[in-house]
Design a protein that fits this description.
Mean pLDDT of chain B: 93
Number of helices of chain A: 0
Radius of gyration of chain B: 13 Å
Strand content of chain A: over 45%
Low-confidence stretches of chain B: none
Distance between the termini of chain A: 37 Å
Order of helices and strands of chain B: EEEEEEEEEEE
Low-confidence stretches of chain A: none
Helix content of chain A: under 10%
Order of helices and strands of chain A: EEEEEEEEEEEE
Radius of gyration of chain A: 13 Å
Oligomer: heterodimer
Shape of chain A: globular
Number of strands of chain B: 11
Strand content of chain B: over 45%
Mean pLDDT of chain A: 94
Number of helices of chain B: 0
Shape of chain B: globular
Structural class of chain B: mainly beta
Largest interface: A-B, 25 and 21 residues
């Protein structure tokens, strides 16, 4: 089974801090994604990547950046955390031939 | 723009059948997916429809009508463990998967 691992389950950061959320997948998937999930808003796509060093903006990229230096790792960066970035962050991956995405367990980030 | 609409919540009793509808409006369409998410858990992939018609996987079935921009997830022989949120998602242009807001299904004894 594909495993997508997010480094932290819960995180509390201060306003203005630079925050790194890490995601690693173990099945050599080309495609990786970062979503945030908020009550009543569903899952919204922040950034995605088709391959190493490639990145594409999703629907809500403002305030975020990403890094994909290795195929298995996709990092989400909050350059200067703000309280409105308090959310559940979900990482997912998909192989080229797959229909479904495999999600990690999520990181619940609180910015105070 | 892109949007998906699904009911916010549905309640049904154990053993019953429930249908969760999804209508979508997207630029580019490559298929409709369904995901299940239990409280505090990761979304898990249930089904994918690229062509019109019904796809059956055990107690769950998913339907798509591309001409109507409409699909549904059908859950049969409901069990308590089916209580969860269900999301429809459209794979559009650029390979992006866009999700609906989710339907919270409550199964009562």
């Amino acid at each position: 089974d594909v495993k997508v691992t997010q480094s932290s389950r819960y995180l509390v950061k201060r306003t203005g801090e630079k925050v790194f959320l890490e995601c690693v997948q173990d099945m050599d998937h080309e495609n990786m994604f970062w979503y945030r999930q908020d009550p009543g808003l569903g899952l919204r796509l922040i950034y995605f990547s088709y391959d190493v060093k490639m990145k594409e903006k999703g629907d809500i990229p403002e305030g975020y950046s990403v890094s994909r230096e290795k195929k298995e790792r996709f990092s989400l960066i909050l350059e200067s955390a703000s309280t409105n970035q308090t959310s559940m962050y979900l990482c997912a991956s998909r192989g080229h031939e797959d229909y479904g995405y495999t999600f990690g367990s999520g990181t619940r980030l609180t910015v105070v | 723009g892109q949007s998906l609409e699904q009911p916010s919540e549905v309640t049904a009793v154990e053993g019953a059948i429930v249908q969760i509808n999804c209508t979508y409006q997207t630029s580019g369409f490559y298929g409709l997916s369904w995901y299940q998410q239990h409280d505090g858990g990761a979304p898990t992939f249930l089904s994918y429809n690229a062509l019109d018609g019904l796809e059956e996987t055990g107690r769950f079935s998913s339907f798509l009508s591309r001409s109507d921009s409409y699909g549904y997830l059908l859950l049969q022989e409901l069990q308590m463990k089916d209580s969860a949120s269900y999301f429809c998602a459209v794979r559009g242009g650029g390979g992006k998967l866009i999700f609906g807001q989710g339907t919270e299904l409550s199964v009562k004894p």
